[in-house]
Design goal:
The protein is an alpha+beta fold. It is 60% helix and 7% strand. The protein contains 27 helices and 9 strands. The strands form 3 sheets. The protein has a 4-stranded mixed β-sheet with strand order 1-2-7-4, with helices on both faces. A 3-stranded antiparallel β-sheet has the order 3-9-8. α8 packs across α18, α10 packs across α12 and α21 packs across α26. Belongs to the cytochrome P450 family.
């Protein structure tokens, strides 16, 4: 038994040796390392381009785990790289924002003003309740000087400037408008170039429009004055049946017709959709600033969608009157192209040609610019006309004096011309005094989007800050206008140092009106702004409104409603900083 066991064990041992000898010897350690390195270096595509250039996943060695594993690993690594890049970019942007915010706080803290951590509580209360912003700023200027700083929010600085010399410097250096202004007009009128924030983008369009408005004063523009008055009276016959007119609505009608007749000519006065167009303009203007204040358009709100529908209807009507003006000009005048550029359709045919050069089509650009002009022109002109009408019913002697001057300046049978209006010095003085006392808004706003402004007195205003000029404080400064600065006195514009005829006939290239040889008065008369962003139609507005008032007073006598005459008189006498009341007026035709 023991022998058999020994032989069996021996056989097993020999069989094991034979099996080991049959297997190939293991490679040396150096050879193994070399093989692995060769696989990594020559067979593994480290980039997606390398993978595509190979024979495909089938040719990749097993050491990479196959094609799917490689692509999965590549996707993970690429995603991680993109996430890291995005994180670094966001971090860099946030760091820049934080640095800009710290710089804003540092520069803003050097400007005199009340202390506030986030936003000035007094200003917030005034804005929330719709209080007297002029009175609030007046108290601050009395305490802190001609330049006052207010924090509207943690990242928004407001700087109010009252001194006339500094005001001139601000309006000269700060050439941009607030971004909210551009968003408001873009939302209401569509894409346009005339009301964008950056001055460099709008400079060419402004020059083109300025040339057009000044030419309208000498090329047939005055012949529409009687037609405008007749059109207004025809359209408000239904209101006249009540026995009186609403002063504000009547002023809006006058402004609407004079701006429309200027842009579109006689075609506008015969337009059947004019009443609907006026209503749409007022509805769109009412809510434009509110909806533009949203950082993201609230398309989910039904009221916003209704507003956008109104804007679309307004655009359709604007395109309609543009076509009507072009068709009527071409069919009536039969001018060649050169003469057509001087016809009544000049606005839509030529003067906005510079604004049409851009990525948008010319028709879209023209439509947006004209809609913006109508909105802006009506709002500013209607305010001034309403103030003048209220003055006429409050002071009958003023109306009698104006009527006597109008009758003396022109014949009863002749139409008013620009030269006739320029001879009516008291009428021009009345318009200017009304604009001085009650400008279109309480604040004149400017902004410097990209550069800091260094003003006199060593004040540095950081880029992006809101610069405001309280017009009521500047234009009723007793040190400039005298002790009666808060009173209505047209004779202050008839003094020797002021020549209204020369002012309004100044070259079209000037940016403002050199009101007086006294620099302080010129710098303190800002109802139309000043500097590079001054109202380009200020001379046109003064002459056009003067011509309309003259035409109106030649035919009609403006009287107050009997039940409201005493109330209007008392409110006007006690009000210096607020707009005049919305009075009721009666128009009585004069006997010739």
């Amino acid at each position: 038994m023991s022998r058999l066991f020994f032989h069996g064990e021996l056989e097993l041992l020999l069989l094991s040796q034979l099996r080991r000898s049959a297997q190939p010897p293991p490679p040396p350690r150096a050879a193994m390392v070399s093989s692995t390195s060769s696989c990594d270096a020559t067979a593994v595509p480290f980039t997606l381009l390398g993978a595509l250039l190979t024979a495909g996943p089938a040719a990749w060695p097993a050491c990479v785990g196959g094609g799917r594993a490689f692509l999965r690993d590549y996707a993970q690594r690429g995603t991680n790289a993109l996430l890291w890049a995005g994180l670094l970019a966001v971090t860099w942007v946030l760091l820049l924002r934080v640095a800009a915010l710290l710089r804003l706080w540092a520069l803003g803290s050097r400007i005199p003003g009340p202390r506030a951590l986030l936003a000035d509580p007094g200003l917030a209360d005034v804005l929330r309740t719709g209080g007297d912003i002029t009175g609030f700023l007046s108290k601050l200027h009395s305490s802190y000087g001609p330049v006052v700083r207010l924090w509207v929010g943690p990242s928004q600085l407001l700087v109010s400037v009252k001194d006339p010399t500094l005001v001139k410097e601000v309006l000269t250096k700060a050439e941009d408008k607030l971004p909210l202004t551009g968003r408001t007009y873009n939302l209401a009128c569509g894409r346009l170039r005339l009301f964008v924030s950056s001055f460099e983008k709008v400079k060419r369009t402004r020059e083109s429009l300025k040339i057009f408005l000044n030419e309208k004063l000498t090329i047939g523009g005055s012949g529409n004055s009687f037609k405008v008055i007749d059109a207004i009276m025809y359209r408000i016959d239904s209101i006249m049946s009540k026995g009186f007119l609403d002063s504000r609505s009547f002023s809006q009608h006058m402004a609407f017709n004079i701006i429309g007749a200027t842009l579109f000519g006689d075609a506008f006065l015969d337009w059947s959709d004019a009443v609907t167009y006026e209503e749409l303009l007022m509805m769109v203007a009412k809510d434009g600033c509110f909806w533009a204040s949203y950082a993201v358009c609230p398309f989910w709100k039904p009221s916003y969608r209704r507003y956008r529908t109104l804007c679309a209807k307004l655009k359709i009507l604007t395109e309609s009157i543009i076509r009507k003006s072009r068709d009527q000009s071409s069919s009536v005048h039969h001018y060649d192209q050169r003469s057509y550029q001087k016809s009544e359709g000049m606005m839509v045919g030529q003067s906005l040609q510079g604004a049409c050069e851009g990525p948008l089509s010319s028709e879209e650009e023209i439509c947006g610019n004209i809609t913006g002009l109508m909105l802006h022109g009506i709002s500013t002109s209607a305010n001034l006309i309403g103030n003048i009408l209220t003055r006429l019913i409050v002071c009958p002697k003023l109306q009698d004096q104006l009527h006597a001057e109008i009758v003396a300046a022109c014949n009863e049978s002749s139409e008013l011309e620009v030269d006739d209006v320029l001879r009516m010095r008291f009428l021009l003085a009345t318009v200017c005094e009304s604009a001085r006392l009650l400008p279109a808004g309480p604040l004149l706003q400017r902004c410097s989007l990209n550069h800091d402004l260094t003003l006199g007195l060593g004040v540095t205003v950081p880029a992006g800050a809101i610069l405001v000029v309280p017009l009521h404080l500047v234009q009723m400064d007793a040190s400039v206008w005298g002790n009666d600065a808060g009173q209505f006195n047209p004779h202050r514009f008839l003094k020797k140092d002021i020549d209204l005829g020369d002012i309004l006939a100044a070259p079209s290239g000037s940016n403002g009106m050199n009101l007086s040889t006294d620099c302080a008065k010129t710098e303190s008369f800002l109802p139309f702004g000043s500097g590079s962003r001054a109202c380009i139609g200020q001379k046109f507005v003064i002459l056009a409104i003067s011509m309309l008032i003259a035409s109106l007073l030649r035919k009609y006598e403006v009287q107050p409603h009997p039940s409201l005459s005493k109330e209007v008189g008392s409110e006007v006498d006690s009000s210096h900083f607020h707009h005049l009341p919305n009075s009721k007026i009666i128009l009585t035709k004069r006997r010739i």
